[in-house]
Amino acid sequence: MDSAFKIESFEQSAKEISVSDLKSINRCLVLVPHPDDESLACAGLIAKLNKQGAQVKFILTTDGSQSHPNSKLYPAQRLAKLREEELKEAITLLGLSPNTISFYKGRDSALPARGEDGFENLVSRLATDLDGFKPDLVLVPYELDPHRDHRATWQMLMAALERGNVNRPRIWEYPIWLYELADERDLPKLGNDELKYLNIASEIELKKKCINAHSSQTTKLIDDDPTGFILSEKMIANFTTGREYFMERGKINPNASLSEDYFETLYSSNIDPWNFEKSEYEREKYATSIQAIPQRQYEMGLEIGCSIGIFTNMIQALCSKLIAMDISGTALQEAKIRLANQNHVEFRLGGIPQNFPSEHFDLMVMSEVGYYLSMDDLMVTKNLIEKQLNAGGILLLVHWTHFVVDYPLSGDEVHACFLNSSLKHLNGSRTPDYRIDVFQK
C-alpha cells in the first residue's frame, strides 16, 4: 500500500525547535506503544534532554508480543521478554536507567481503545503516573497514526489527563506509520508552526545504535516465522535523516483564549451544554460557592461568565446591583429570560479581558471561566480585577480542576495566578473535582 503522506512537503513545513524551547523542558514522559518506537521517533531528543539534566520516563503500553505470531522459537511470552530487554538496552545506550520504564503489558496489536474492555484500567494507571511525575512535556504517537495500538495510546493519554489533576503539559505527537501506511483520512491538518523539527546531527550515530538494539525487529534474529515483522531499510531511513519531527497541534495544545464562536457553537446545539440546570453536582457546587462568600449585602457585583443564569439567580440576592456578562449572545438571552423580573441585574455581552466593565465592584465572581483564557489574557484580567475591586471587596473563584483538552489553562493554574496577586486570600477549599478560593482587597 502506498502512503498518501507526502514526506517532502511535510518536512519542509517544519520549524526548528530552539535551544531555549528545549531548555524549558524539565520532565518528559514518553509514551511508547512498542519497543523501538522510542528509538525511531525521539532517541535524539531524549539524548539531548538527558544531557541537559531533564528527567525522562517511559511507559511501554503493550507487551510487544505479536511481531512474530507464528514463531515456535519465540512464542508470545518469550518474545515479550526479549523485546523488554531490547528496550532496556536502548534506554541504557541513551544514558538512562531501565528503571525509568513502566511496563503496562497491554496486548500487542489489541491494545484496548476508548470504549473497549480494559481501557479504563489502563487510563487509571496512567492518570496515577501522570499525577506522580507531573511532566511538562509528553511525547505520544500522533492521534491518527495508522496502527491501532498507537491510536489507543493517544486516547489513553487524553482520557488520563482528563481524569487526573495535573497542570496542562505540552503534548508533542510523533509520526511512525504515517510515513508508510497513511490514507487521506489519517493526514494531519497542521496550522502555522504546528510542526517542529529537532536537529539531531550530533546524536545520529547514537540513535542508529538504539534502533539496532531492537534486533528482533531489525534483523532476522527470529527466522522461523516467514510472516514475522521486520523494519525495512526504507522505513528506518525516515528516522535517520538527522532530524526528528514532532507535531504540537493547537487542537491539544491551545494557547489562545477560546473564541466567541466556540461558545456559540456549544450553546446553539444545546442551550445547557454543562447541564447546569439539572445536575446535582452543579447544585452542590453552587450552594458551597454561595456559602463561601462573606454574607452581607454588596452594593455592586460583577459575574464574569454568567452563562444561562443559573448561578446568577443566586448571586443577585447578595447584590443591590449586579452586572452579569457572557461572551455568548445565545446564553445571555436565556439568562435574561430566566431573570426577567430582577430589575437590578444588568446583562452585558462580551468577553474578558477586552470587554471588562469600567465600573468598580464590591463583589466579583469568576466561576468556571478562567481556564478559557490564555495565560496572557488571564494576567490582564487579574490586573483589572485588582484595580477595579473596591477596598474591602470580595473575589470568588470557582473552577474545575481536571484537564480538558480544549482549555488553555487548568483550574489550578487560574487559582495559582490569583494566589500570587495583591489580594488577600481569605479561605479556600477543594473537592476531587473543583476548588474554591475567596480573596479580599
The profile of the biggest β sheet is: 7 strands, mixed
CATH architecture of the largest domain: 3-Layer(aba) Sandwich
CATH fold field value of the largest domain:
Rossmann fold
Class of secondary structure makeup = alpha/beta
GO molecular function, one term: S-adenosylmethionine-dependent methyltransferase activity
InterPro entries: GlcNAc_PI_deacetylase-related, LmbE-like_dom_sf, SAM-dependent_MTases_sf, SAM-MeTfrase_NodS-like
Organism: Pedobacter yonginense
Pfam families: NodS (PF05401), PIG-L (PF02585)
Describe this structure in words.
This protein is α/β, with parallel strands linked by helices and 441 residues long. The chain has two domains: 7-247, 3-Layer(aba) Sandwich (Rossmann fold); 260-440, Rossmann fold. 36% of the residues lie in helices and 22% in strands. It contains 16 helices and 15 strands. The chain has a seven-stranded mixed beta sheet with strand order 11-10-9-12-13-15-14, sandwiched between helices. Helix 4 (76-93) links the parallel strand 3 and strand 4. Helix 3 crosses helix 8 (204-212), helix 4 (76-93) runs antiparallel to helix 8 (204-212) and helix 5 packs across helix 6 (148-163). The model has no long low-confidence stretch (mean pLDDT 96). GO terms for molecular function: hydrolase activity, acting on carbon-nitrogen (but not peptide) bonds, in linear amides; S-adenosylmethionine-dependent methyltransferase activity. This is LmbE family protein. It comes from Pedobacter yonginense.
